[in-house]
Specification:
Layout (H helix, E strand, L loop, with lengths): L1 E5 H8 L15 E7 L2 E7 L5 E8 L7 E5 L2 H8 L4 E6 L3 E6 L5 E5 L15 E3 L1 H11 L14 E7 L2 E7 L4 E8 L6 E6 H9 L6 E5 L4 E4 L3 E5 L8 H8 L2 E8 H14 L6 H4 L1 E7 L2 E6 L2 E11 L6 E4 H8 L7 E7 L7 E6 L4 E6 L3
Helix pairs in contact: 3-4, 6-8
Length: 366
């Protein structure tokens, strides 16, 4: 069998697969290649991660094919080829990759494996791809990176009432939540692994996605891409809902751009600190009716970043966590900080802007 395709078209098909190719061991990691009528479907399934990806290339096929090839090598070979049409011939033993003038030619032997079958389902719901992408783009960077408690490595999505509600937390100091308006005809509650959520959030595909919850896995199906993911059995603790539903009192109004610039400069100045406990902190204080930022235990450098709404004692937050939240806001936004009406050892505060449909709960540092 033989196909001829543009290099860029093939790279776009392989692009959503490559980030999941992480398996390492004695055996080659296999990339499945299956021809189906006028399509060639490339697939990868990670045994340990439980994540499968199927991506289709629209290209005339002059025969049937079901083979596996080295998943680490094949995308790198394609990437190294000149930016022109590529011809791939699949014979009985190997795939021969070359450009049309035959000046570049690479042969890759097949791997003794069988391509994973693409999942199919007639159940599930259809979700606008842009809405899902926006929700996961905001929430996925804030999941926990620690495997100690797997539920915190997930993004929690609730699809209901023409909205996508999303939640992610590191399980320690920070909680991100928000609402993305979307036309949804059915309700669904699911937890998506952070690495999968991140890939969807960064994708360029905004076509409608069909989501199915099956017995042993969930499926995200785009017109030319399918993701198969093992479901997570569990849920966030009840205190997550308590934080979100808690009454708040606004204490200050800050300019996002001014605050972000002040944190950048404080990060540079913090290099003088030896005590790592204070090194990544920012102090937010009231000076007359202005709100200022400074380093902890060093107020020689201060920045006016907004105005107070209510009185409050000086606050200390993790500077990096605040900066990461500002990165998903617009520089022209107005940031409000509110105190949650909760009696806890480490008081939580709500960071939000009136221009956005998301917020962050952040615990004060002592």
């Amino acid at each position: 069998m033989k196909i001829i395709t543009k290099k860029d078209d093939l790279k776009k098909v392989l692009q959503p697969i490559v980030p999941f190719i992480t398996e390492k061991g004695l055996h080659h990691t296999s990339l499945g290649i299956v021809s189906s009528g006028s399509q060639v479907i490339f697939s990868y399934y990670g045994e340990s991660s439980g994540i499968g990806v199927w991506s289709s290339l629209n290209s005339p096929c002059d025969g049937a094919l079901s083979k596996c090839i080295d998943a680490n090598i094949f995308p790198k070979v394609i990437d190294a080829f000149p930016d022109e049409d590529i011809e791939i011939t699949f014979n009985e033993e190997k795939a021969i990759i070359q450009n049309l003038d035959k000046k570049h030619k690479v042969s890759l032997r097949y791997i003794d494996n069988v391509p994973e079958s693409e999942p199919s389902s007639n159940t599930g719901i259809s979700v606008p791809g842009k809405s899902l992408k926006n929700a996961l783009k905001i929430s996925s960077p804030f999941v926990s990176k620690s495997i100690v408690n797997p539920v915190y490595m997930m993004v929690h999505l609730i699809l209901e009432n023409n909205n996508i509600k999303y939640y992610s937390t590191d399980g320690h100091a920070r909680l991100i939540y928000g609402i993305e308006p979307s036309e949804i005809l059915q309700n669904m509650d699911l937890y998506i692994p952070g690495n999968v959520a991140e890939k969807i959030g960064k994708s360029n595909d905004e076509m409608p996605v069909h989501i199915s919850l099956l017995e042993n896995f969930m499926v995200f199906r785009y017109p030319s891409l399918t993701l198969k993911v093992l479901p997570y059995v569990g849920k966030f603790p009840d205190r997550v809902k308590e934080y979100i539903s808690c009454q708040t009192i606004d204490i200050c109004s800050l300019n996002v751009s001014s605050l972000a610039h002040s944190l950048d400069i404080l990060t540079v100045l913090s290099g003088e600190y030896v005590d790592t406990h204070y090194k990544d902190m920012v102090k937010i204080s009231i000076e007359n009716d202005n709100v200022t930022t400074s380093l902890v235990n060093n107020e020689e450098t201060k920045f006016v970043v907004g105005t107070r709404i209510d009185s409050f004692e000086p606050l200390q937050f993790n500077r990096s966590l605040v900066s990461e939240f500002l990165s998903i806001c617009s520089p022209s936004d107005t940031l409000l900080i509110s105190k949650l009406n909760m009696d806890t050892t480490f008081p939580p505060y709500k960071f939000y802007t009136k221009e956005r449909n998301f917020a962050m709960i952040l615990t004060e540092m002592k």
